[in-house]
Amino acid sequence: MSQIRLRVVSAEFLTNHIVAEPLLRQDHKCNQLLIDALNFQLTRVTERNDSFHLFLVSGTRDCVITTKECKVYDVSKKKLFSNPNMNENRFNNSAVSLNGVIYSVSGYNNGVLNTAEYYDPVSKRWSYIAPMNNGRKGCGICTYNDLIYVVGGRSSTVESYDPATNKWHLCQPIPGTNEGFNRATVAENSIYSLTRVTNGNNALFRFDPRWDTIKS
């Protein structure tokens, strides 16, 4: 139980499924882990305000030097603030927010990266998560059903990440090979990915995560 990262599981899933499990509630150590996870979720909620923040994660200087800088733009105050740096320099990476946590994955730094990390706004620290099965840059990224999905990015592969288990799962790949610069979004239980394939044309793919199927 201690190997499961309950802190990054959504509060709804914790209260509706995990907390309701009798075996976990009766075990003292498991009970303490559940209390810690719920306290973490409540802390994030109480520290949250009505302000909208935009995270700017990594990039390049003078289009040459990759950075690990992270800055936050406060929309209500119209100000840009410095934030703790990531652990690794990244360029052409992808970032997404899930359950109040910021994830930065893939990118390029003297080679295509398969590494990923997350930022905890409570501890104000970046930490590595499990590496992806494939390196990628410019991949599409989105969230669905408490999972993170990465699509393409100089690769035809699709992967999903479960924060609760800290594991990546290979999904049905994209037909053919793409040149990167993917964009992904979710609509009506499907993930849509717009990419440029090797013949130079743009292609739109629809991935249904419920059945692990892709259609063009």
TrEMBL record:
Gene3D superfamilies: Kelch-type beta propeller (2.120.10.80). The keyword Acetylation does not apply. SMART domains: Kelch (SM00612). InterPro entries: Kelch-typ_b-propeller, Kelch_1. The keyword Repeat applies. Keywords: Kelch repeat, Repeat. It comes from the Eukaryota. This is Kelch-like protein diablo.
